[in-house]
Design goal:
Helices cover about 55% and strands about 5% of the residues. It has about 525 residues and is mainly α. The model has no long low-confidence stretch (mean pLDDT about 95).
Length: about 525
C-alpha cells in the first residue's frame, strides 16, 4: 500500500482541492493566521503543514486573492518546484493512511481474531479509493480514519472504559477538527460510549434494572467523549493562532433559521462556526451532477450508494455485505454490530442529503468499515463450515487485490469489473471519481513523446497550470469551430458535461488516445 501511494503521489499533479490546502497549511506555518479555507477546520491542514515545513517553499504572505489564487501563486508563481512541494505535502497523509490500516487490523482482530484481522487489513490495503485519496494532500481519508479509530476505541471501552473513552473522544475530535462532515458521528459515538460503559459495569444484567449510579456513569462516559472532542477542536485552532484571530479573505454568508441557530449554539471557536456557515452556503448552491451518462441539476439521494457500488472492489462488496448481515444475525458477534454499522450508516445517510454529487471521497468511511465487517464472515460460520468459508473469503480477498493491482497506478478513476474497469469509469461518473486534474503532468509527457510540435487545443478541469508543465495550448471555446484543427484534448469531466459548441467539437472529432483514464485526446 505504501508503494502504491508513494508511486501515485510522485506521478500525479495537484488535484483541484490540494493547492488550497497546501497554501493554507503554509500560511498556518509561516503567518499563524486563520485566514484561508474556513470551511474546513485546521487539523488536517496542520498535518499537511508537517510536510510543507520540510519542503520549505518560498511564500509571499502579502499576496492577495482568493484561496484558489493563493494556491496557484504558491505552486507556480513563487519559484517553487510544484512536484517537490506536492510530494512533501502528501507524505504525512500517506503515513497517516498506513497507520489507519493498523486500526483496521486491530479492530477486526479484537472482534474476530487474528485471521479476521489479516483479512480486514488486506482488503483495506488494496482498497483503490483509500489508496487514491490517501496519496493526496486532502482531508477525506484523515476524517474517515479518525472516525474509524474512535469507533474502535469506544469498542475497547467495553473492557477499559475510563482508559479508552478519553482516547475515543480525542480521535472523534480529530475527525471533527479535520472536516465538518464528521459532526453527525458525535451523537452516535456518544451513544456507543453509554453502551460500552454499561457493558463494562459488573452485574448490571438487563437494561430495565438501571440504578442511578449506573446511569450517572454511563452519561459520564458520553460526556467524556464529547468534552475531549470539543477540547481537541479548540486545540487545533489554538495551534494555528493562540489569539484565535479570524480574518477571512472571502465573505462568510449569513445563515438564517434553524441552521443558523444550531451554528451559534455550538461550543466551538468563532472560526469553526463561520466555516459551518460557508458550508451551508455551498449546500445552497445549484451544483450539477453526472451519473450513468445523465447530467442533472441538484443532487440525487441515491448518488453515493450507486457510486460506491461502481468504485468498490467486488470482493470487498461481497465480503463486507455478508459480514454486515453476519454481525447482526450471529449472537456471538451481535455486541459488535452497533460499533461496526451505526457510524457508517449515519454518516452515509447524512452525506446523501448533501447537494454536491462529486464523488465517493465524501464516503470513504464505507470501505474502511466494510473491511472490518468483512472479517466477520468466517467467524460467523459453524466449525464444520469454517474451512469452506475461509476458502471463499480467500478467493474474494484475492479478487479484490488483483482488481486493485490491475488499476495501478490509476487509482482515482477505478471502477470494478461489473462496470468495465478504470477505462470506462468516465462513462458513468465524473469529478473526483475519475478526473480531478491529476493527470496534467502525464498529459505533458504524452504530448512530448507522441505528438511533438502539433497544435493543441485544451479543455482542462483542474487547478494546475498547463504552461508550467510545458503544455502550449489554446482554449477551443474561445475561437470559431472551423479554426480548431490538430489535437483536441478534453478532461473527461468536461466531456461528460459538454454542451453547445464543445459538444459539437467532440462529436465531429475522432478519439485517438487517452491519458490516465481521465483525459481524452481527439484528432481534428
Amino acid at each position: 500500500m505504501a508503494a502504491a501511494m508513494v508511486t501515485t503521489a510522485v506521478q500525479q499533479t495537484p488535484t483541484i482541492d490540494e493547492p488550497v490546502y497546501v497554501a493554507t497549511a503554509t500560511d498556518y506555518l509561516r503567518e499563524h493566521r486563520l485566514r484561508y479555507n474556513p470551511e474546513h477546520p485546521p487539523l488536517g491542514k496542520l498535518l499537511i503543514a508537517a510536510g510543507v515545513a520540510v519542503a520549505d517553499p518560498h511564500y509571499d504572505p502579502s499576496y492577495t486573492g482568493t484561496q484558489g489564487d493563493v494556491g496557484r501563486h504558491l505552486l507556480y508563481e513563487s519559484g517553487n518546484d510544484p512536484w517537490r512541494l506536492m510530494l512533501w505535502a502528501r507524505l504525512p497523509v500517506i503515513a497517516l493512511t498506513l497507520l489507519f490500516g493498523l486500526v483496521v487490523w486491530a479492530f477486526a482482530g479484537e472482534v474476530t481474531g487474528t485471521a479476521g484481522g489479516l483479512v480486514a487489513l488486506a482488503l483495506y490495503a488494496y482498497s483503490p479509493d483509500v489508496i487514491a485519496h490517501g496519496s493526496l494532500a486532502t482531508l477525506d481519508v484523515p476524517t474517515a480514519g479518525f472516525v474509524l479509530t474512535s469507533a474502535w476505541l469506544v469498542w475497547l471501552a467495553r473492557q477499559r472504559p475510563w482508559r479508552c473513552l478519553p482516547l475515543a473522544g480525542a480521535a472523534l475530535g480529530a475527525a471533527v477538527a479535520t472536516k465538518m462532515s464528521a459532526l453527525p458521528a458525535v451523537p452516535v459515538l456518544m451513544a456507543l460510549a453509554v453502551v460500552s460503559v454499561r457493558a463494562a459495569l459488573p452485574g448490571t444484567g438487563s437494561w430495565r434494572r438501571w440504578r442511578w449510579r449506573e446511569a450517572r456513569l454511563c452519561l459520564a462516559g458520553a460526556a467524556v467523549v464529547a468534552l475531549v472532542a470539543v477540547a481537541v477542536v479548540w486545540a487545533a485552532y489554538l495551534a494555528v493562532d493562540p489569539r484565535l484571530r479570524f480574518t477571512p479573505t472571502e465573505p462568510v454568508p449569513a445563515v438564517p433559521g434553524p441552521r443558523g441557530l444550531l451554528t451559534e449554539l455550538l461550543p466551538l471557536p468563532d472560526a469553526y462556526r463561520a466555516g459551518m456557515r460557508v458550508q451551508f452556503g455551498l449546500e445552497d448552491y445549484p451544483w450539477q451532477g453526472y451519473l450513468f451518462g445523465h447530467v442533472y441539476a441538484g443532487a440525487l439521494w441515491y448518488y453515493l450508494p450507486v457510486a460506491l457500488l461502481v468504485k468498490t472492489p467486488i470482493g470487498l462488496l461481497a465480503l463486507g455485505t455478508a459480514g454486515s448481515v453476519a454481525v447482526v444475525a450471529v449472537r456471538r458477534l451481535r455486541s459488535a454490530a452497533p460499533y461496526l454499522l451505526l457510524p457508517p450508516v449515519v454518516l452515509l445517510a447524512a452525506a446523501m442529503t448533501g447537494s454536491r454529487d462529486f464523488g465517493t471521497r465524501y464516503a470513504l468511511f464505507v470501505p474502511m468499515f466494510l473491511a472490518v465487517t468483512a472479517a466477520c464472515v468466517r467467524t460467523a460460520c459453524r466449525a464444520e463450515h469454517r474451512r469452506r468459508a475461509g476458502t471463499v473469503t480467500g478467493v474474494l480477498v484475492l479478487w479484490a487485490a488483483v482488481s486493485s493491482l490491475r488499476a495501478f497506478p490509476y487509482y482515482l478513476p477505478y471502477a470494478n469489473e461489473a462496470f468495465g474497469g478504470p477505462a470506462h469509469t468516465h462513462r458513468v461518473l465524473h469529478d473526483s471519481n475519475v478526473d480531478w486534474g491529476q493527470d496534467l503532468g502525464r498529459l505533458a509527457d504524452r504530448l512530448r513523446e507522441r505528438y511533438p510540435g502539433e497544435r493543441v487545443w485544451l479543455v482542462y478541469k483542474g487547478s494546475g497550470v498547463p504552461s508550467s508543465y510545458g503544455i502550449r495550448a489554446s482554449d477551443p471555446r474561445e475561437v470559431a469551430p472551423e479554426r480548431v484543427h490538430g489535437l483536441l484534448v478534453v478532461s473527461d469531466s468536461a466531456v461528460a458535461k459538454a454542451r453547445g459548441g464543445l459538444a459539437e467539437l467532440i462529436r465531429t472529432s475522432r478519439a485517438v488516445d487517452e491519458v490516465g483514464h481521465s483525459i481524452t485526446l481527439y484528432r481534428r
